Amino acid sequence: MSARISITDDHALFVDGLSAILNRMDGVEVVFTSTSGTELIQALNEGIEVDVVFLDLEMPEIDGLETLKLIRKQFPDLPVLILSMHHDESIILHLIQNGASGYLLKNSSVSELNRAISEVVKTGIYFDDFVVNIVYKGLNVKQRKPIHLGKDQSFTSRELTILELLCKELTAAEIAEKLFVSQRTVEGHKRSLMEKTKSKNTAGLIVNALKLGLIQLDEI
Fold it and tell me: Number of folded domains in the chain?
């Protein structure tokens, strides 16, 4: 793994501590730090090259959410990991809806930090079980007509129906019974969904489907 990291947090001691931890990881280098979203956006516009942004949620001038929105507008493919002490589900859902690539509590272990960087560099997203469960509870599929996102990305109405039921945590057997089809048919549609969204597992499928707009979050 090779990753250039940016850290933005208005607490200098936290920035220094996190920088020291990350710089000790193999292949990881902190190349930029700042104490405000304004400094970060300016540096990105000036051409600083980073692979992952660590972004504090509560900051002066512009907070983490507004900074995230600006990054998504100007640098849509840049992974942003939100750092916070908040466990509030509505806040987490709102950040994901606005393009957060991952959400980490500030008391996360070093191993989780390493895992998050590795996953977000490889796949563009990282959500632990706690966050994935929040996403599951907040999902609401509002579009069941076939969706065409591009030349090579089309999703049938049956795939979207199965995706909806997967979001509700139904098993393949339960979905098969509900739709009056075989379990093998359900598994086939699930494999197709995972291939089209480039997902490795069901949790990744849900998060990727969310990022692609195949599913939507309830109103917060």
Answer: 2
